[in-house]
Write a structure and sequence with these properties.
The structure is a single chain. The chain is 56% helix and 12% strand. The chain is built from 14 helices and nine strands. The protein has helices spanning 2-55, 61-79, 93-113, 116-125, 132-145, 150-162, 166-180, 184-197, 204-216, 221-233, 237-250, 257-272, 280-283, 297-300, and strands at residues 289-295, 308-315, 324-329, 335-339, 356-364, 374-377, 381-382, 389-393, 395-396. Helix 4 (116-125) runs antiparallel to helix 5.
Length: 398
């Protein structure tokens, strides 16, 4: 920001100079004005002297005229090239006061109406983030600086979903809809955030949002996937199959989430008592990492039964955000869980998309998956590993 303020200061100096130059010019012209007045007085005195000599008979009329003409020529020679001075109707005090006020007013107006915070934000975003927490902080800063940016609200909402903060994400999607209108994609994201924030309990509001989204765009992917999940959880397996098949038809053949979606369809068919449809997508094994999570004895006395526990996998070489997350409480430990593509919070970041992952478990009293008090970090493993992985929470989270 130093170069910006230097440039601003230079511009204010130029503006002040424009106001001060006329005052300085008047001061330099004052001696010239005094010399001209003296020459005029001398001329008038000379003319009066010539007339007196003519009246006394010393000079003739012709000599008088010649003397007056000579005096006039001398006056013109003395005043030749002198600038005529115009008195400013503003006087000298007002320009001086204005020159002093211009920098003060300019700085005040810029701090009130300017965009120094946006300049600083641009500088921050020019450097890639080194962690998920840093990326989140930058997005939060962007939303604070530009509260009417739908794009900023959307990306921060998606980030909150990846961090298992659906309640916070729902508020952001609602704000984005209020600014940009009820776009189908935003309606689907809002409905999904509300569903997970409500502990996967369906509601009339979520139903209305998904209905509205699909009316606006029958191919709205988030709403189709969410309706399939809700139908499966409600044991309405045929409806789940119908929604997921509609979504499956929209996904490109190379989309990694097709295998997880086909696996869900097959499980729904099994619940109905029908044989699963064998397809190319179904032939792909949907990986499931089995993890046993427990607390070290020295940690058990330092945590509360209601503290949140997050079990997640993140890519060894890839983005810092979790690929699959499950949440529970300390009271449920020890526990065995499975992490699959179905636990992904962002469709483009599936567990099966990455060859090697690191498993982690974190105790967070504040309920934040990105920071807490105690943590367990596993060694890198294959995302297709079938053996039971062990995680013991025993280290302070730093």
């Amino acid at each position: 920001m130093i170069d910006f303020w230097l440039a601003a200061g230079l511009l204010l100096l130029v503006a002040s100079s424009v106001l001060l130059i006329p005052v300085l010019r008047v001061r330099r012209a004052q001696p010239e004005e005094d010399r001209t007045a003296l020459n005029v007085a001398l001329y008038q005195e000379r003319v009066a002297e010539l007339k007196a000599q003519q009246e006394e008979g010393v000079l003739t009329s012709a000599q008088l005229e010649n003397g007056q003409a000579e005096a006039a020529r001398e006056l013109l020679a003395d005043t030749d090239g002198a600038d005529s001075v115009r008195a400013s109707p503003l006087g000298k005090a007002l320009p001086l006061v204005a020159a002093l006020l211009v920098p003060v007013l300019g700085l005040g107006l810029y701090l009130h109406y300017g965009a120094s915070d946006k300049v600083e934000l641009t500088r921050e975003f020019s450097v890639p983030p080194t962690s998920m927490a840093q990326m989140t902080a930058r997005l939060e800063r962007a939303v604070e600086v530009q509260p009417d940016s739908v794009e900023g609200l959307y990306f921060l909402g998606r980030t909150y979903m990846a961090q298992n903060r659906p309640a916070d994400a729902a508020k952001l999607f609602e704000r984005a809809i209020g600014l940009s209108g009820r776009q189908p994609e935003l309606l689907g994201q809002w409905a999904q955030a509300l569903y997970f924030a409500n502990d996967k309990q369906w509601s009339a509001q979520i139903q209305a949002l998904t209905d509205e989204a699909l009316i606006g765009d029958p191919k709205e992917a988030t709403s189709l996937g969410l309706l399939g999940i809700a139908a499966f959880e409600g044991q309405r397996y045929q409806q789940a199959i119908d929604y997921w098949q509609r979504l499956l038809a929209l996904l490109p053949e190379q989309d990694a989430s097709r295998s997880a979606l086909q696996g869900g369809i097959d499980r729904a068919r099994e619940r109905l008592g029908a044989a699963p449809v064998v397809s190319e997508a179904a032939k792909v094994t949907v990986g499931a990492l089995k993890v046993k999570v427990s607390l070290a004895p020295q940690v058990q006395a330092k945590v509360q039964p209601g503290d949140s526990v997050f079990v997640f996998a993140r890519a060894v070489s890839g983005p810092p955000m979790p690929l699959a997350v499950k949440r529970m409480t300390v009271a449920e430990l020890p526990v065995e869980v499975e992490l699959t593509d179905a636990d992904a919070m962002m469709p483009q970041l599936k567990l099966s998309n990455f060859a090697e992952v690191q498993l982690m478990a974190r105790v967070s009293r504040a309920g934040q998956p990105t920071q807490g008090e105690w943590v367990a970090r596993g060694v890198p493993v294959s995302s297709k590993a079938t053996a039971l992985q062990q995680l013991t929470i025993d280290s302070p989270d730093q």
